[in-house]
């Protein structure tokens, strides 16, 4: 019985040392969070950069060329969209695009699925 208590105390001691090592490692040896890698672009057209993460044209960041990539949007309409965005501090919803002169219900329905904020 006395020998059994000694073994239990040894096991508890080993468990305590292992727990202390794990906590110490987590506190003192966790590697620092590194900065995200820089994105290096080459001769990629800008139309693909704005729509890179979901394949859509983003109204609040798209250039005139990106807007012109939408079917039915020409250079003059793209300029009006950019002017509206600048005057109103960006678009707050995709439906707000209907407020731009030249974007009627038919055109909006045609390009709605290709847009994002």
What does this structure look like?
This protein has 117 residues and is mainly α. The radius of gyration is 30 Å and the shape is rod-shaped. The chain has 5 helices and 2 strands, in the order ααβαααβ. It starts with a helix and ends with a strand. The chain has a two-stranded parallel sheet with strand order 1-2. The protein folds into 2 domains: 1-34; 46-116, Photosystem II 12 kDa extrinsic protein (DNA polymerase, domain 1). Mean pLDDT is 83; it is low at 47-51.
Summarize the structure.
This protein is mainly alpha-helical. It has helices at 2-28, 46-50, 64-68, 75-87, 105-111; strands at residues 57-58, 115-116.
**Percent strand:** under 5%
Quick one: biggest sheet? Answer: 2 strands, parallel
So what's the overall shape? Answer: rod-shaped
> Would you identify the regions where 5 or more consecutive residues have pLDDT less than 50?
47-51
What is Rg? Answer: 30 Å
CATH topology of the largest domain: DNA polymerase, domain 1
Give me the number of helical elements.
Answer: 5
CATH architecture of the largest domain: Orthogonal Bundle
What multimeric state do the chains show?
Answer: single chain
* CATH homologous superfamily title of the largest domain: Photosystem II 12 kDa extrinsic protein
Order of helices and strands: HHEHHHE
Q: What's the count of strands?
A: 2
Number of domains: 2
Strand pairing plus helix content: what structural class?
Answer: mainly alpha
- Provide the residue-averaged pLDDT: 83
Q: How helical, in percent, are the residues?
A: 40-55%
Distance between the termini: 73 Å
Largest beta sheet: what is the strand line-up?
A: 1-2
Instruction: Give the C-level CATH assignment of the largest domain.
Output: Mainly Alpha
